[in-house]
């Protein structure tokens, strides 16, 4: 690597911050510019719907790395700046203010943005009390309306919606969750796990409604506030605050406009390389072929963003680091620590271990005698072993797997 080379990283989230620092660690000698359109120092996103929303994690603990870490690594932080165009022929990026900057290598770490709710497009999404939740700025606006007794309508019963519901109901808000599918967490868990979560939320006081399609909103033009949610079954839900959490769209437009291959994610190989030898990409904005699952996947998780960034940093320095780690994710709701490993699509059997009633169990998704994925609830030590079961494609004895008296460790081959 030459010291006169320039690496520009677009996007200063989990992936971008890690990529910049790791590129330096892996031997990049030239300039590194980390460009992000948010003004805050790159920060942890998961607490936004958990401890930060609840007010138990202060702002100053959210930073991914201290400012001094970037300074020490010689990384120029260009925050509050948005890249508007990438010209691959000229190897130059342009910012929204018209300024341009040449690069030798480029990294896309542009993440994702909330999927817009179609029913809100007629004007509700411009109301002062209608929110999506992706950024620190979003949460700060939401928190100012978190008043005990307020009526909160959450559209979408995925992780973010349910985490927000758990925080809100604990703070004394009256919470309704409106989920279009027949159960919450339908995209990611088995019906048994969904029904467990629905029950927990209902016991906590959340009004969970499934199979409900939101098809409009009533607005008070004077106050510019949404006052009611309209559901396709004729139900009307009065509200003081609406939060929509129906997934994300990957930010791929910039890459696509520059001519890179995109298909619901910037296409990268297992080393985070795009089709252009001078460009890598990492995080929520990418899609790659998983050798473990034999298909292309786009993941939305911190562990994936970090690992892909390390692979990208290696690639930028002419090294090869292959992303073959097994996907995992977590969600905190009430006193429940949900940790999931693997992807359950294609499973033919679900086995439970532990006790759902006692809120301590694991759900194993099997295909034949192999474990494709595991959801663990309040079983953190078991999660570590479950990770090995999935990653190493270990054949298990189902009878022993469901027997809580048999330590899970006993199902793993001796080291
Ligand atoms: C509320 C919430 C809770 C979550 N909880 C969990 C959890 O518990 N566990 C877990 O694993 N994951 C969780 N996630 C998902 C996790 O946060 C993401 O997978 C992770 O942030 C992905 O990192 P990223 O860097 O790829 O993208 P992002 O974090 O989205 O960062 C991308 C950055 O690039 C910026 N950007 C985009 N385009 C440009 C441009 N043209 N110019 C400049 N900047 C640009 C974006 O504004 C953003 O700041 C959660 C997400 C949210 C929103």
Q: Could you walk me through the main structural features you see in this protein, from its secondary elements to its overall organization?
A:
By secondary structure, the chain is α/β, with parallel strands linked by helices. The protein folds into three domains: 6-113 and 250-316, FAD/NAD(P)-binding domain (3-Layer(bba) Sandwich), CATH 3.50.50; 118-246, FAD/NAD(P)-binding domain (3-Layer(bba) Sandwich), CATH 3.50.50; 335-411, Enolase-like, domain 1 (2-Layer Sandwich), CATH 3.30.390.30. The protein has ten helices and 26 strands. The strands form seven sheets. Strands 3-2-1-7-19 form a five-stranded parallel beta sheet. The longest helix has 15 residues, at 302-316. The structure holds flavin-adenine dinucleotide (FAD).
List keywords for this structure.
3 domains, five-stranded parallel sheet, FAD/NAD(P)-binding domain, alpha/beta, binds flavin-adenine dinucleotide, 415 residues, globular, Enolase-like, domain 1, 22% helix
The tally of domains stands at 3
How far from one another are the termini? 40 Å
User: CATH topology of the largest domain, anyone?
Assistant: FAD/NAD(P)-binding domain
Strand content: 25-35%
Global outline: globular
- Helical fraction equals 10-25%
Question: What's the β-strand tally?
Answer: 26
Mean pLDDT: 96
What is the CATH superfamily classification of the largest domain?
A: FAD/NAD(P)-binding domain
Query: Could you give a short account of the major beta sheet?
Result: 5 strands, parallel
Q: Give Rg in angstroms.
A: 22 Å
Tally of individual helices? 10
Q: What oligomeric state best describes the polypeptide chains here? A: single chain
